[in-house]
Amino acid sequence: MNLAEIDFQQLRIKHILYKSKVRSVLYVNGGEYDASLFSANSPVNTWFNDIGLKKYRQEPGLLTLLALQQEMDTTARQLFNLYKAGKIDLAQQGLSTIEEKSEKFVTLVSQLEKSLKE
């Protein structure tokens, strides 16, 4: 496994944790909201700042990937606000948006990883 594969595997793991935490907050009795996981200093955002933008900024798709993560962050905050406002069903329905964006995110990660192998 080369360094790029390791870097993108780390991103993939951080993303899965992120998505799992969103689901947990919306479905597990309001799961515990961890503000740091959804902040500018989240593990995913830290990966972009410390690794992604420094090592792979020139790679086609990286900035698209970052924008997609930022969209997911915004959507997650909106869903959490709906949940807190008692609109639980609406918040849970909105999770499908996170799922769709997550699928695109994982696909883009795989494409970047593949392009760096070649």
Structure description:
The protein is mainly alpha-helical and 118 residues long. It has one domain. Helices cover 77% and strands 0% of the residues. It has 4 helices and no strands. The protein has helices spanning 3-27, 43-55, 62-84, 88-117. Helix 1 (3-27) packs antiparallel against helix 4 and helix 2 runs antiparallel to helix 3 (62-84). The model has no long low-confidence stretch (mean pLDDT 91).
Quickly give the structural class.
mainly alpha
Tell me about the biggest sheet? none
Question: CA-to-CA gap between the ends?
Answer: 13 Å
How much of the sequence lies in strands comes to: under 5%
Give the CA-based shape. elongated
Q: What's the β-strand tally? A: 0
What letter string, H or E per element, gives the SSE order?
HHHH
Share of helical residues: over 70%
Write the layout of secondary structure elements.
Blueprint: H1 3-27, H2 43-55, H3 62-84, H4 88-117
Helix pairs in contact: 1-2, 1-4, 2-3, 3-4
